[in-house]
Amino acid sequence: MDQDKKHAHITTLGSKPARLIDLINYQDCSVVSREIMTKKTGTITVFAFDEGQGLSEHTAPFDALVYLLEGEVEIVISGNPLRLKEGEIVIMPANQPHALKAIKKFKMLLTMIRS
């Protein structure tokens, strides 16, 4: 896919207002993601997790901010479980193991910052 087509949705989003929660839809038994911005310094992605879905423990080499748009999620960071509800945020520090599991289906904005 050429770069113009790959990033066409970013240009479209940048030219008009959009509601984050409306940029992605749930799919049964799935985790869905939509990257809305990619730069050398980081990415911004919206996710939709169906109830019970998750991401297994992993690490990332840069800090990540999670903003919960709706629903409820358990995020475990370095063995510490946290429950987030709509409107709450948490920062997942670089190189710290973390995992996510949907307590209820949820949507989130993930902002990853490379340093």
From TrEMBL:
InterPro entries named in the record: Cupin_2, RmlC-like_jellyroll, RmlC_Cupin_sf
Name assigned to this protein: Cupin type-2 domain-containing protein
CDD domains: cupin_HP0902-like
Domain Cupin type-2: 47-110
Phylogenetic classification of the source organism: Bacteria, Pseudomonadati, Planctomycetota, Candidatus Brocadiia, Candidatus Brocadiales
Species name: Kuenenia stuttgartiensis
Any Pfam family matching the protein: Cupin_2
Transmembrane segments: none
